[in-house]
Amino acid sequence: MASQDSTYASPKWWKEAIIYQVYPSSFQSHPGNTTGWGSVKGITSRLDYLKELGVDVLWTSPIYKSPQADMGYDIADYEDIDPCYGTLADVDDLIRELKRRDMRLVMDLVVNHTSNQHAWFLESKSSKTNPKRDWYIWKAPKSINPDGSPEPPNNWAQILGEANSAWNYDQVTGEYYLGLFTPDQPDLNWENPEVREAVWDVMHFWLKRGVSGFRMDVINLISKVPSYPDAPLILGPGHKYQPGQQFFVNGPKLHDYLTEMNRQVLSKYDALALGEMPFIYDEDEILKAVGARSGELNMIFIFGLVDIDNPNVRMALKPWTVREMKAIITRWQRTMIEKDGWNTVFIENHDQPRSVSRYADDSDEWRDKGAKLLALMQTTLGGTLFVYQGEEIGMRNARSGEWPPEAFRDVETINYWKKVQTLYANDPDMLSLGRKVMDMKARDHARTPMQWSAAPNAGFCDPEVTPWMRVMSDYKTVNVESQMQQQSGEDSDGELTTWQFWQRCLKNRAEHKEVFVYGDFHDQSPADPNVYAYIRTSSVDSGDRWLVVLNFSGQKQRFVLPEALELESWALGNYVSEKTPRKPLGRAVDLQEWEGLIGKVRR
Ligand code: GLC
């Protein structure tokens, strides 16, 4: 367990909260709204639903004023709401309604970059002498080609379109600006103290308005290596531009900036400080940010698990094994306990394909079992738990080949498909591999409208309105209404639906938070290629111990209990029709395909 002076198990609201992520464009529209987009009013109308599921905190992806080049992750005004979502008054109302239910709101803070339509950037690009010129990262061309065309300052590739340069030429002033994600998202220059002050102001603005913290978008990208060197050629010679991650991920001043943010803003509130930190797996770097005494953030999203099938870039496929998956999870469970940090537990968000399609089996036969298996795992791991909209009903990716390329709306997918078509126009195998990557990895899969019911548009918006993004074709069978209504569980012998199972698992986590949120963690099956089994031990003197056994395969498996372990009872399982699993309590557990169980260990 952790050292004597560890604060790992000291209670905090943001440790035990169940945080539900809403993707606002696709969560819920409101009656009479003809835009085909979700809205703030729509979110407010679903708070009772979230409460019933067991949610405490709602995090919404950006709803600020934005041209929506990257679905709101390109902000044009940090202190106003985009008209497609509503008004500031609607947000005040949302905060009030959340408070009434003892719930909280967390906003997305996107301050590595702004929109190219933000007033700061419009000023910055207006002339080399504008006072805001230095708020962004401007550089002269590296060279001028014989034909007079300029070359970008270095070879860094755009993150959401790696065939393109991360630098964008501005004809008027003859310089390039850096836009790591897309040209519509110019990176702010955090070296400039005025920029940092402006960010602190934005944070105070929202915290004073009643929000309870921030999920900080790509916060580990805010400090760049000041010499802006060329990146190594890891994508091979056919690629002019290369991932420059090593020069802008956890850069030289990151920890200074986060410490300053903590001092200037976070320390003055009891706020959640959650950083999104892609591309970093180094333990020391991560602990600098989330160590209990770091004075920086409370927790970060570590990308190990969701990067498991990514080689150098996200839109690609890499084979992986269950053993690797288990090792990643175990590593971060143990690290945070031993080194007094704090974990996030997440497996889905708006940037990832659906988890049941990725880590389990999303066929009609196994979808429900797989989604419940993942629910059992998520709700029994240590750290702050995040549930992404639709995960609670086991929403899955579009069926392979079902969508034509035009159905994909995300800028990353569009850039990817453009690249594949340009590079491999005459290579049917590569074109079909490209389609496969889209079917398995595109962010679009997580962004389809929430499936509320079997009504037209899945109840997401009025029947006569066309949703901004196509509704998944399985909404008549996979939807909230049917999963909440089905007779099951407590009073009958019927099996719980995915939704009911999530609700039950969340309740179990809340009832035993000293075990599942704050407790110790020990992997019991590191070598097993299919079964993930671990023990969670209560952080308080009661010493309660629970065994979790998860079969991550489509074959039956047997798990033999460790010598010193005897089970008192099974408590929850994804296969059973009864309230508690009627499984034998012997030394070996026979598991069905994708079966998961948790049981109490005898003392
Ligand atoms: C984060 C967001 C993603 C966005 C990117 C740029 O990774 O989650 O959706 O495209 O940052 O803001």
From TrEMBL:
Sorted keywords for this record are: Hydrolase, Maltose metabolism
Q: Which GO terms describe its molecular function?
A: alpha-amylase activity; glucan 1,4-alpha-maltotriohydrolase activity; oligo-1,6-glucosidase activity; sucrose alpha-glucosidase activity
The biological processes this protein is annotated with in GO are: maltose catabolic process; sucrose catabolic process
Q: From which domain of life does this come?
A: Eukaryota
Q: Which InterPro entries match?
A: GH (IPR017853), GH13_cat_dom (IPR006047), Glyco_hydro_b (IPR013780), O16G_dom_2 (IPR045857)
Q: Does the keyword Hydrolase apply?
A: yes
Q: Where is each Glycosyl hydrolase family 13 catalytic domain found? A: 21-447
Q: Does the keyword Chaperone apply?
A: no
Tell me what this protein is called. Trehalose-6-phosphate hydrolase
Species for this entry:
Lasiosphaeria ovina
